[in-house]
TrEMBL record:
Lineage, highest ranks first: Bacteria, Bacillati, Actinomycetota, Actinomycetes, Kitasatosporales
Residue segments, region Disordered: 1-21
All copies of domain Dehydrogenase E1 component, residue ranges: 33-293
UniProt cross-references to InterPro entries, sorted A to Z: DH_E1, PDH_E1_Alpha_Subunit, THDP-binding
Swiss-Prot/TrEMBL keywords: Oxidoreductase, Thiamine pyrophosphate
BP term (GO), one: pyruvate decarboxylation to acetyl-CoA
Organism of derivation: Streptomyces sp. Y1
CDD domains named in the record: TPP_E1_PDC_ADC_BCADC
Record keyword Oxidoreductase present: yes
Pfam families the record matches: E1_dh
Protein name (database record): Thiamine pyrophosphate-dependent dehydrogenase E1 component subunit alpha
Annotated PANTHER family: PYRUVATE DEHYDROGENASE E1 COMPONENT SUBUNIT ALPHA, PYRUVATE DEHYDROGENASE E1 COMPONENT, ALPHA SUBUNIT BACTERIAL AND ORGANELLAR
Keyword Ribosomal protein appears in the UniProt entry: no
Amino acid sequence: MTAPTSPAPASPAPASPVVPLPLGGPVERYRALRLIRGFEELALALVTSGAIPGGIHPYVGQEAVAVGVCSALGPADRLTSTHRGHGHVLARGVDPGRLLAELAGRVDGLNRGRGGSMHAADLALGILGANGIVGAGAPIAVGAAWAARQARSASVAVAFFGDGALNQGVLLESLNLAAMWRLPVVFVCENNGYATTLPAATAVAGSATGRAAAFGIPAEEVDGMDTEAVRAAALRAVERARGGGGPGFLECRTYRYEGHHTMERRMKLRYRTPEEVEAWRAHDPLPRAAALLDPATVAGLDRAVAERLGAAREFALASAHPDPAGALDHLYADGLRPRAGAVA
């Protein structure tokens, strides 16, 4: 009986830039906000047309959290994301064309179309992956922070998660380990008020910051619709973690303007009143960020982002669909070598 042969490696997708998106000034941060909002609006349209199968979890409304936190990170820092992760990876610097191709299941996507909306990753940018399991990015970020400590690196890890993860044991275990080992990790709770359709107030005893306080982790509540407020809080937490002060925790109070998932458009769920949604639209992070710039600059940035997203759409839809013959490729690991000191 002959040994099975390993599948031929797929042709590599275009390499990502190794430098994260520059977010050092109000212009760059507004551009990133506009890019994320426009990307999500484009993705919603492609879901409707059928070009993106299966739907997405829209990030519309929460852009200030991704941009504010990622603006506080350095080139060597790492992050883990969530099922609602497009904003995080775009704010970090992922090419929108490759992300859109991934959502559409095309071979030029970040993961060659195999990950889809909930599993975007780009190790070159320190993006250790979005995750469809609630709270599952937290232990990965803790592991990355521990590895950085072992390597005597100054890098920091960030774990994004929603309010629905606050009752997950894996998050509490991650908080405990990070506190016990004083690891350089920042936990970012995007509290948009709902775990799918369940109001957080009816499911979470105590508070988000109280979870962190129980482990002795410094915690801060911040207006998650204000990019500059999120950035300031993230800078404090990241600098403390990088300097050896241990983990930090941010609760960003935010809101999603769309449903939990695009399937809600078909199901016509009614768990939020129109008045509630409109009240939150008054705090939209994009106009707040635009108010820091002159109108001509804003108009120019809007045009440039629209052009970039147009090119991203063309790139994604021109990319080929994967060959069904390769469906089993990468199902099993191959070519692995044991690390030094391990017994094979």
